[in-house]
Amino acid sequence: MSGAFGYVGRRVLVAVPLLLVVSLVSFALTELLPDPSIARLGQHATRENVAAFRARKGLDDPFLARWGRFVRDATTLEFGEDIVRDDGTTVGAGIRSRFPATFELALAAMLLAVVLGLVAGALGAVFPRRLADAVAQVFALVGASVPVFWLGFMASLLFAVKLEWLPHPDWSLRVIAPDAGPGGYATRFLFLESIARLDLGAVGRALAHLALPAMVLSTIPLAVVTRMTRATMLEELGRDYVRTARAKGAPETRVVTRHALRNALIPIVTVTGLQTGALLGGAVLTETVFAWPGLGRYVAEAVRSGNGPVVVAGVFTFAATFVVVNLLVDIAYVLVDPRLRRGGAT
Amino acid sequence: MRGARAWRRLRRDPLFWIGGTLVFAVVLMAALAAPLSSHAPDRRVTLEGERAPVAPNDRYPLGTDENGYDVWSRLLFGARASLFTGLCAVALALGVGVPLGAVAGWRGGFADGLLMRATDVMLAFPSILLAIAIAAAAGQGSVWTLVLAVGVVQVPLFMRQVRASVMTARHEDWVTACRATGLSASRTLLRHVLPNCLAPILVLATLGVGSAILSAAGLSWLGLGPPATEPEWGRMLEEGAKYMREKEQWILVPPGLAIAATVLGFNLLGDALRAALDPRVTR
Q1: Where are the alpha helices (DSSP H) in chain A?
Q2: Which residue among A49, A72, A216, B141 has the highest number of C-beta atoms inside a 10 angstrom radius?
Q3: Do the Cβ atoms of A303 and B224 come within 8 Å?
Q4: In chain B, % of residues over pLDDT 70
Q5: Is the ipTM reported for this complex over the cut 0.85?
Q6: Which of A303, A307, A327, A329 would best serve as a mutation to test chain B binding (most B beta carbons within 10 A)?
Q7: How many angstroms separate the CA atoms of B44 and B59, rounded?
Q8: pTM score, two decimals?
């Protein structure tokens, strides 16, 4: 086990400087984005007012000093004062209140994509070149080519307006858990907390409101997961151990699910982890379509309103999440795969 | 030799023909935008007394949007904008990524380490998000903003691919032979090694055009692209969005279908090329 811990420790140690450089690149955007004092004071502010504002908020300090403050504030998840709103709130408060909605949406979309992708990919590998295989492949490819924001419009037109099967997503406590009692929920993880409270009505409403955006967002990783599953499963099904399992009379479903799929999982998990990046990026567009109160829409709105500090902190939070997810994936399969556990290499 | 064999494989692939037809159709739309269009794409064309948006009729094949702009004409000229953005963005990524990747793979050592760490950092950002930030930083929205934003985020992909191909080729016997005949390092790289790495670059570039068009549409939809008067598919969707619950929902259909068909075309072409050029890929 010490090998595994050594490996985990090394991976964590590599992630720290990467996060620092990511913070540097994100913060460097500050230099390029429009001056936040214009967003605060308006287009017609006098030069003296702008200069006084910049001096008061420390915007004219040397770059390294401001980056140092950014890193320090990032470690406490505060990210400094929101100088555009200028009402004493911090950027971090805005980010923390929106992160849960994005987390739950991304998690639901990823689970959906993995389940659908595994089933479709495995079916395609078991019956290659048959109708089901072709349908799954075409479906995945079309899904990857359709812009998510347009798919969002079309899906809500169909399921929410025409058929009225699903509600227009409204991710607020008032709608999901109207009778949560005094104080409402302790967190903003509406779905996870409603499960934890065993409030079945709220769980059902949360699922109904999650369904449309999660379905739309899941099309981004779906194609890659399906293809990766199909390709690795085809490879595994041709191996000797599969022939042995069949020869000793194991039922085919068991050969596929217990033997081949298990061995195919590692590359699939790796690819899934890497797809988190595309998924988080897609969340910016999906959240904007569905007015989802998440981090993606927060960043998109900050871009429009010229709130540079929020854009920088949002971009950094997304990238840091992506780095941490990949770190967790790396660690997870060292713990799962006994071959990697001993050597600790690769 | 290899080209002929690849073409034989390509010719038998139905996906190649479907993808090729889709891309060809978009190229035709872009090339013949002026003669095919019924109106000017960038100004109000409705007559006195017509209330925009006008439903599709004889005068406006796909109707007009709320500003009285003809949707069919905008769709045709939008093909130009999308193809232009996609091709220029990939050209930018190729122009920066191929030389840097080749140097990293050929020289190795410190330069390689530095360049690869740089790609690690860029790939740590979700690409659309990085593109949004670049577009916001570039300010003044235009087609060039889109080209810059979606082109830059593709650079690390080309760098990695070219580096991997060059590194594999570097240690092969024929490269040693080139050097042994007295050919200079740069000439060996440019005339012999890089041409041998063309196949994966071609595949990546084809897929890259599709994903560049998709991302650019997203940025433009967020309002980071050209101004609303210019015909651009993503922007047309943004304009149409407010009609989602009205009876004019049809405004939303044509630009979305156009983006999807174009991106699908490039994705199919790229996949077919990969299958034809790489003998290991089996369908």
Answers
A1: 2-32, 36-41, 47-56, 63-75, 91-126, 131-145, 148-155, 173-176, 190-196, 200-237, 240-247, 252-254, 261-290, 295-305, 308-336, 338-343
A2: A216
A3: yes
A4: 96
A5: yes
A6: A303
A7: 14
A8: 0.90
